[in-house]
């Protein structure tokens, strides 16, 4: 065998020999596994739904699904790749949910799914199923602002406003679970919410004041 042919020859490592798999074979298999997992996954919420592709392939064409949003059952025609944030904003015109980083890093798109805060930009609309979605618009009751919403206004807890809906959803969830939080509890609740304007001190004050009113 010529020298250049020897250099091109792939030699298995000892670990690969023991495991019976080559590095090249692993990469091929990993690609197939990733694609397959993505198609049958229940999504980032872990909603324990049956695999989407158990009996048929979904997409790439759009399909009609039902979402229960703010107490109302809504039908939306979405592609399988459509995120919950896109469905809310572009299909249901619920633009209170903001998309800023679009990668789950800033939490501006925070909504509740069955009462739990999630990043809507990282959640596929198809994965929501029959879960109850609550957006910042849904916090209002009978035309009255939620105490956290009103307190944000009173304490000037928003500047550019992009992070505000996510901040409100995170802090309102805190008060739903803990009506008497400490300042550390509030800081912990918004630890994933990024505010580039630096209005966190006002957010903390607003949340503590809302807790008193609630």
Quick synopsis:
The chain has 214 residues and is α+β, with helices and mostly antiparallel strands.
Question: What can you tell me about this protein's structure?
Answer:
There is one protein chain. Helix content is 40%, strand content 12%. Helix 6 packs across helix 9 and helix 7 runs parallel beside helix 9. The protein is elongated. The protein has 214 residues and is an alpha+beta fold. Among the domains are: 73 residues, Ubiquitin-like (UB roll), CATH 3.10.20; 67 residues, DNA polymerase, domain 1 (Orthogonal Bundle), CATH 1.10.150.120.
What labels would you give this structure?
DNA polymerase, domain 1, Ubiquitin-like (UB roll), elongated, 5 strands, alpha+beta, 5-stranded mixed β-sheet, 40% helix, single chain, 214 residues
Write the layout of secondary structure elements.
Elements: H1 3-8, H2 14-19, H3 23-40, E1 63-69, E2 72-78, H4 84-91, E3 110-113, E4 116-119, H5 125-128, E5 132-134, H6 147-154, H7 164-177, H8 183-189, H9 200-213
Parallel strand pairs: 1-5
Antiparallel strand pairs: 1-2, 3-4, 3-5
The SS-based structural class is alpha+beta
CATH class of one domain: Alpha Beta
Mean pLDDT: 83
Assigned CATH superfamily of one domain: Beta-grasp domain
The helix/strand series, from N terminus to C terminus, equals: HHHEEHEEHEHHHH
**Number of strand elements:** 5
Radius of gyration: 23 Å
The percent range for strand residues is: 5-15%
Number of helices: 9
Q: Which oligomeric state applies?
A: single chain
Largest sheet: 5 strands, mixed
User: What is the second-level CATH architecture of one domain?
Assistant: Roll
Main sheet: which strands, in order across? 2-1-5-3-4
- Globally, the shape reads elongated
The fold-level CATH name of one domain is: Ubiquitin-like (UB roll)
Distance between the termini: 81 Å
Uncertain segments of ≥5 residues (pLDDT<50)?
5-10, 15-19, 26-44
Estimate the helix proportion, in percent: 25-40%
